[in-house]
UniProtKB/TrEMBL annotation:
PANTHER family: ACETYLTRANSFERASE, UDP-N-ACETYLBACILLOSAMINE N-ACETYLTRANSFERASE
Organism: Cyclobacterium jeungdonense
Alphabetized UniProt keyword annotations: Acyltransferase, Repeat, Transferase
Protein name as catalogued: Acetyltransferase
Span of domain PglD N-terminal: 2-69
Keyword hit for Acyltransferase: yes
NCBIfam families: NeuD_NnaD
Keyword Lipid biosynthesis: no
Record family assignment: Belongs to the transferase hexapeptide repeat family.
Amino acid sequence: MYIFGASGHGKVIIDLLGTEDRVHGIFDDNTHLTQLMEFPVLGPVPDHFIFDHPLMIAIGDNRARQKVYLRYRERADFASMVHDSAIFSKRATMGAGTVVMERCLVKVDSQLGRQVIVNTAASIDHDCRISDFAHIAPGAILCGGVRVGEGTLIGAGSTVLPGIQIGSWVRVGAGSVVTRNVPDGSTWIGNGLKASI
């Protein structure tokens, strides 16, 4: 596959690759990044470059990942990944470009959208709906029937109680407990709503 993103999340994606997978090239708009581990970084994607292998957008920031997806969605097929140590229900689904990392749990009838990150040891219980460009950070727990809107970050080690609806482009702080619905563009820290963006 090709990888777009030559920083920390790019390293994580490379590390997730199996022995049969091959990195065909790494791109990044930052021309100062020339090497990612043992791989050269090729710089920005040339205007007329043809993606002859799937592309993985390896960017942790949700808005930046969306921006790159919109730039290349007409030119590329997007790779998806589920690590061998994850438990991903045969009755769950995920969209193009989504990655499910080590020791994650995705239960029955959950649906993950496009370009979602389910980070290390996160748990998504039954019947959850995770919209495009969301990021479920390491160790986060979503109880059954949770809805997460587009571009939302569920912070590391946080817990979302059953049936809660979280809007689009929300930030849930690390270690929070979400006990009620959260409107679009809000920030939830600890046990309560703190601000709107």
